[in-house]
User: What shape does this take?
Amino acid sequence: MVYFNQIYPTASWDNGQCSNILINEQEECYEIFIVDGDAGEHSLIRKRIDFAGNELNETSIFFGDTIVSSGIPDAFNTIGQDYLFGYYCNHFAMVEMYNSNFLRVWRYNSENTDTSGSAISKCLTRSDGTHLCVGVTLIENNGEIGDDLMEVDLIELDENGIQTNHFIVNTEKSFGQMRSIHELSNGDIILTGTQAFDYDAVVLRLDSLGNVLWQKTFQSPTEDERDDLWCQSVLVNDSTLVLNYGYGFGDEYPPQPWIMSSVRKLHLVKLNLNGQEIIWEKNYPSIYGVYHYNNDMLQSPDNGFVMVGGIENSSFWPIAEPMVGFHFSYIAKADADGNLLWRRNYTFSPDTSMFVGDWNELYDIELAPDGGYVACGYLNDFDLSPQYQAWVIKVDEYGCLEPGCQNIDVTEIVLGFENSMSVFPNPVKDICTIEWNVDKVSTIEKNFSQSELIITDTQGREIQRLPISNFGNQHQMQIDMSGYASGMYQVHWVSGSAWLDTVQVVKEKP
Assistant: This one.
């Protein structure tokens, strides 16, 4: 299985984000899509990387003077060999079609001149080749924009990008943003997203003409206006839907004066689309922070659910410790009944400054050909130049960056220390030496001086645990394996609940 953690520089100081990834098995590569550049200079980039993370080539299309506000393509679909994108722009919404050579075929603009902005958040392509896109229009009223001045739009485009219908969805409340759109076999449409004011998660069922058949809202115990929840969904079949959203629970950890939002938990709900009853509901513990972003979800081959997103936290907020930095990403998996199997948090190499590695967020996740997962996002680090970088990570079926992390008690994957360790001799008869990369020792000693080595066998059983009191002048540590049986072993370097690196060592026969 292939693993990698790669950063791809962009030319941007205020954008440069990857939110969509496509697996091209025919050419044995991943395609990542980035909106790059600063105000008035945006380009859409298709970057191709091989299955090991090595960059192959890229193609770029300039937007001209179009002002793309979101910095990322919000809607993304593939239609055969073609690509469909939707965006949030100033004063209009935009949808574009590109062919397999990544040349623009057509562009649709909503031209809502009486609005302050419009967002196309999701699109689906029907069997007849038409496209149905959902978005929200921010209506300006006497120079003011408010939560009560938002309407949900359904825009139908033909295969040439010509608008054939425009439906305004009449609902109980105005909406923040629709995050998922599904079509049932009878032509009904399912939308999931969040409401304005209280930001509760919501599911809408519409007929083919955009009329609301029913609406179901999911409220959290926190009744303030600061929940800012994102709501993704997977259509299991015509009768069931699974939602993933951040669940505010301010009663347990109430908002602090310096925090602009309530704490949240990761939350899954399975809903019967016919009777609207909840089949099961799962509320997972202990993801604390300011905003909980649930950016994407897919159904795994074993009918489980894999989720990806990010969460802000503050290193000076006691319940957020020992998470370091201001924003980290996560990948989590639940089984078909919603039981959480594993969750990994991903942060970059920590530093004492809270502004280093401030933002790293994963937007999209896909099942890789080898059974693992590949996800893409961005890193916004004040130490980088330019500041924004595209980020792609490839992990195994357990969310591990190297094999075996599921066998030790870790929940956080600290990126940037991969390949920090080497081992010699390997194979080993009696004593081997673990050596740490000298270039990373200062960061290692500053943040992980109390780390340890955990040695496991090929079955994942813990064989030995060795504390590291200090790294010494040679940055080395010896392990006596004379009493070990012959075979393969993994040496995991951990600090508390954080994984840092792993090496494999072979013990020879006596």
